[in-house]
Amino acid sequence: MSLRGDTIISRDFTGDVHKVKTTSEVFYTKANRWDEANADEVAPPSFSVDGVQYLYIKTGGVYLLATSRKNVSPALVLEFLSRVANIIKDYCGVLNEESIRQNFVLLYELLDEIIDYGVPQNTATDVLKRYILNRPILPEHLPMKSSAVLAKGVGKAPVISKSVLSRDTSGKKGEIFVDIVEKLSITFNSSGYVQNSAIDGSIQVKSYLSGRPLVKIALNEDLQIAGRSDGYNSYGSNYGVLLDDCNFYEHCNLDNFDIDRTITLNPSQGEFALMNYRTTREIRPPFRVTTSLNDSGAFKVELVMKIRAEFAQRIVAPALSVSIPVPKSTVSISFPTDNPRDGKGGKQGQASQPVGTFLEREKKITWTLKKVQGGSEHIVVARVSLNSQSSVSLKKEFGPVSLQFNLPLFNSSRLQVKYLQILNQSAEKGQNPARWIRYMTESSSYICRI
Amino acid sequence: MAPREKTKGEVSDLKAKLAAVIKTGTLPQPKDGKGGSSGKGSASATPKDTQTIKRGLFKSILHYMTINVDMSGLFTQMIIASTPTNDIVLKKMLYLYICTYAQQKPDLTLLAVNTLTKDCGDSDPTVRGLALRSLCSLRVPNLIEYLLQPLKTGLSDRDAYVRRTAVLGVLKVFRLDPNIVEELELELKLKEMFANDQDSQVVANSLSVLQQIVRSPQDLITKPVVYSLLNRLKEFSEWSQCAVLEFVSNYRPEDGDETFDIMNVLEDRLQHSNSALVLATIKVFLHLTIAIPDIHQQVLERIRGPLFTMMHNKGPEISYTVASHLRLLVERAPMLFSQDYKQFYCRYNDSIHVKKVKLKMLTSVADESNAYDIVNEICEYATDPNETISRESIKAVGTIAMNLGQTADGLVERLLSFLDMNMDHVTAETYIVMADMVRCLPDQVEKCVDALALLKSVEVVSPEAREAIVWILGAYGDRLQEAPYILETMVLGFDEDHARTQLALLTAAAKLFFKRPPECHRLLIDVLEKGSESANQDVHDRALFYFRLLKRDIQAASQVLGSAPPTTATFGEQLGSDLKDALFKEFNSLSPLYGEPASNFVAGDEEIEYEIDLYENAGGENGAQGGEDANGGAAYADTNLLDLSDDLASLAAPVADPQAQASAAQPPPQQAAPPAPQDPMALLDMLDVQKPAVPVAPVAPAVRLSPSPSMDAGKFQQLWGSLANQDSFVVSSPQVRARVPELANSMKAIGVITMASGGQEPVYKFYQYAQQEGANSVYLVELIANTQGGALSVTCKSDSAALIKPFASFYQQSLTSYVT
Question: Residue B420 above 70 pLDDT?
Fold first, then answer.
């Protein structure tokens, strides 16, 4: 279903939900206006209306919605929906309204194989290929060869939009991508100390290798997992990468994991998370922020923020955005050296000069810094005019500062893929498939309190 | 209407094109340049071209079908166009089409059945499976006979793909006609497949089908079955594993060793990346060990890690699901999680729902060791741009303080500091929490009440917060010098206030009057005066009630109103342990997300649902009312009054005395409160002087209803039949629907008691009675409310010929003022 509420494809399996046709309407109304009285309330990911359970995920600008009359396991339904989303991605290259519309016959075909009468059947991308006859219509604007896309890694990890069904035009070699993506959640207290931190990491594999060859992936040997009584005694030693917990993909062989930290698997084509992990050990934060608030008159406060990039010089964050809520009584904000009237930032010679914006409605200032190099330091200033007397309690309304960024090539946990081998390649004609290992750190909840 | 016209045009356009393709193998010369995907209009179309054209046409037909344009008119053409064909793509589209419209066109579907059954014998297993799946999905009861043979063959097909489909086909047939499954002994066949089939998906499908068709699914769970399933668990797909584990979670091992065996086998499932599988495993673990407390505790410790990982590693939807389940566990054993409180800190990018659940968990795990850390953290959320989160945070601080009791000093101060933040909703929520807190923590009353001294009541807008403030002032006004004056200011704006604040003001003024009579009598008079003039029935009634109570018996009034404020240790809103257990039983389902057991939100008897479905299929909308009957079985009370009163008398009869009710709502009256320094009686005389200000208008001179009439159902029945004096009238108002639910209660306030009531949309009936005060005359009322027309038809009867008219007009007046 599109975000505008149009059903793009739908399938009724068990026929026990009455008046199936109205469910999309019911869902759309509820999802958009959960509570008439309070706009702050939004619909939870699953809800019940008239004995029909609605479970949905929102991804790629569409809703994937499932309805049931039973007390289903929400985790099962939601995981299944995300699996469906992945399959659509695998087959159509991308998941969005357009790709679904263009490929709806293919998707009906897929759906029929994936689920029958409400019971999930086959969900492995390459097993499904056996039963699928329709060809996908791929988005046109994307180049056929995925590696070309790598170059323009703008915001997120490079997007590979390629269908598992598309035949390789460039010779016989396959490709495999292994992405180590870490999401960073750090809270600094007002004096700049790390109060709470966590890394949620994931090793994402996108495989376009044909014939499910055996792949061996080795992680750091000094990797330790808390609370596991394996070859390593994780207590007492403070070197190495220590994880709190991790989980693994269904079809991987962990027999040697406890011995030499290698994982072997026969990757199915398509995209999946090989391993998810979490650690709350102390980490070195990539950015530090110090903020000061000074009264500059009864109704004026000056906000000075210093942002230091504490990572290696060779690494550049393509974009860093800093935002901070300001008090409700804020009238206007000026950025020194900028045009003070409109609050929009100007440039000051340097290309990397941060651009400040005051979002009047949300009462929030944001700065966007481009190409932040490791080791660099940036200072941003804002003069805030208020319509009430500045006071201690008023200053509480500032903050917290939140940072949004992504850092390619940077990895905070120091978890590494030491090597990636593709074994039993005998059948292939000498040419090695391309292997890509990429690191990426993203901010999840990077908060500095004032 | 324009779009419909357009789609109609499209339908006939497609029809014409289909006809042309059938005839000539190609499209007619394109006139509008819009023809199929490759509209080559040449006369010599190759079979290949025809195929492409057909595919294109089918595709657009399916497209319209998807967006709910009725394409059933093309049924015949679709079938002709696609037979005979070997093009599987075309076949798939055709079958999808047929399955969608089979119920609308059962007769035409018969035409397709032949093709379908033939395809069930195809040499390609994919085609066999496809045909069988479609055949079983037709949902046309008359066609069942055609699919039984293919189904039976399918169950023994050599290809697993076909067998999987056939197994699910059994369930589809079962939904249409359970008897056939029994006749053909398919259950036995399925059990055999469940036990022996080589293909794991076949086994998994048999499991889910068997669970739904067997009379007592519990009997399926035997030790050998469970063991064989667990031993080959990893052969199953992750989804099937979930189903298997859900099944196993109902198994009760014979002894501890067996429990450990099962847990060892499943141990590695906990580090799976699929959250559904992990939750299913956790459910097995928890249910297996429920009787062995120390192991149960170890299990809880073991599963913490995976749950925390899943709470953040997935999308917001799964985060919420995991967090809700975690909350359930946290609330069962907060001690175990008290070290992990930092895991529950909210993240900037958490969804609102996840944040809410996390706040609940933080509240649960807070104990002496971590409460200050937690509260410091939560205080940061009070400025959250989202008002709901901000309010929930304040509530959480309050709850933590209340839970900790004696050691809550500092926490209460944190709470009070929210008042300095000058944010409307923060202030409002703080007052609301404060009202709860003073009830819970008598030690903290002083602090809280002092904080009210600086209150500028006009700045507080939210009715709930105003109500809370007024309540505190009423209950503890004796400790705060300013209390009467704050209330006085608030009474000035009485008419603009929300009804709930008005009600609170009435009560607070009346209560405070007994504590500080000289300062409060003016306040009380003002508020009673304003209240009795209120258009709101509740406010009006309460004002009159207090007035009469004070006037009639000052001692009784002092007992009712002047009692010490109640204290309580816990509040009803917190999850009761019964509910927690119920939710725990339904772990890994929607119940923990909704916080209520499944019976509250899913239909109890699913069989009925399916049967209705069949009705609808066969005869259009006839079956619809069946559904309503199922849930709305309330007695309708047409002729036999007694039945109704027997059923429902219990609802109304026992609460007859408004005073008793009032004192039930208030805390049990304590021994007569010591007389206040000045004699309240004397002050009350002054009150009496103000009499004209408190109108008794609604009470007509002749009719004075006893506040506590009594009558039993039998007598009512008998009188209704015998009384001759009667009067009828009709009151109309658009508000009837909204007023009906509270009708019985509000009539009780004027002395008319509801003996019985019942009915359902749009008609409700009420049988009521009243008694003349000081006399034996009785009044009986039959009230039929039609919410659709907005009319209340009333018939009154009485044993007194003189009083029937005045009573009828009194009743009409009261009713009119209530519903309009």
Answer: yes
* Residue B569 pLDDT exceeds 70: no
B801 vs B820: CA distance, rounded Å: 29
B421 interfacial to chain A (CB closer than 8 Å): yes
Contact assessment for residue B23 and residue B77, using Cβ atoms and an 8 Å cutoff: no
> How many residues comprise chain B?
820
Query: What fold does the segment set B2-215 form as a domain?
Result: Leucine-rich Repeat Variant (1.25.10)
Q: Do A121 and B610 touch (CB under 8 A)?
A: no
* pLDDT value of position B688: 45
Name the average pLDDT for chain B: 73
Q: How many CB atoms lie within 10 A of CB B215?
A: 7
The 8-class DSSP code of residue B705 comes to B
- Cβ contact, residue pair A202, B310, below 8 Å: no
Both tokens of B394, joined, read 């304040």
Q: pLDDT tens digit string along B461-495?
A: 788 888 888 888 888 877 877 788 888 888 887 88
- β-sheet with A52-59: strand ranges across: A46-49, A52-59, A62-68
User: For B646, how many CA atoms within 13 A lie in the half-sphere containing its CB?
Assistant: 5
Q: How far apart are CA B73 and CA B83, in angstroms?
A: 18
- Please name the residue that has the structure tokens 């651009």: A355
- B447 interfacial to chain A (CB closer than 8 Å): no
State pLDDT tens for residues A290-311: 888 887 777 888 888 888 888 8
d(CA A207, CA A273): 11
- Contact call for B126 and A131, based on CB within 8 A: yes
CA B267 vs. chain centroid, Å, equals 36
CATH 2.40.160.40 fits A172-282+422-448, yes or no: no
- The residues in B 165-184 lying below 8 A from A, measured between CB atoms, are 165, 168, 171-172, 175
CB atoms within 10 A of CB A268: 22
Q: What is the dihedral of CA B598, B602, B604, B607, to 10 degrees?
A: -140
Say if residue B84 is preceded by a cis peptide, omega within 30 of 0: yes
- Distance, CA of B362 to CA of B377 (rounded, Å): 10
Task: Please name the member of A78, A200, A393 whose beta carbon is closest to the beta carbon of B420.
Answer: A393
Which tens digits make up the pLDDT trace of A173-191?
Answer: 578 888 888 888 888 887 8
Q: What is the per-residue burial (b if ≥16 Cβ within 10 Å, else e) of B400-425?
A: bbbbbeeebeebbebbbbbbebbbeb
A62 backbone dihedrals φ, ψ, rounded to 5°: -135, 160
- In this prediction, residue A350 carries a pLDDT of 40
Question: What pLDDT is recorded for position B692?
Answer: 36
Cβ of B168 within 8 Å of Cβ of A116? The answer is yes
Range B641-661+699-819: architecture per CATH = 2-Layer Sandwich (3.30)
Supply the pLDDT for residue B662: 41
Q: Looking at the domain covering A287-408, what would its CATH class be?
A: mainly beta
Q: Mean pLDDT throughout B636-645?
A: 36
What CATH number labels A1-159?
A: 3.30.450.60
- A396 and B421: CB-CB below 8 Å? yes
Q: A202 near A168, Cβ under 8 Å?
A: no
* Cβ neighbours of A41 (radius 10 Å): 16
Q: Return the domain boundaries, chain A.
A: 1-159, 172-282+422-448, 287-408
Structure tokens at A47: 């809800």
Q: Is the Cβ of B279 closer than 8 Å to some Cβ of chain A? A: yes
Residues 6+ apart with CB under 8 A from A450: A190, A291, A293, A324, A395, A398, A399, A400, A401
> With 70 as the cut, is the pLDDT of residue A171 above it?
no
What is the 3-state secondary structure of B131-156? HHHHHHCCCCHHHHHHHHHHHHHHHC
ipTM of the prediction greater than 0.90, yes or no: no
- Asked if the domains at A172-282+422-448 and A287-408 fall in one CATH topology, the answer is yes
Q: Among candidates B260, B216, B221, B261, which has minimal Cα distance to B244?
A: B221
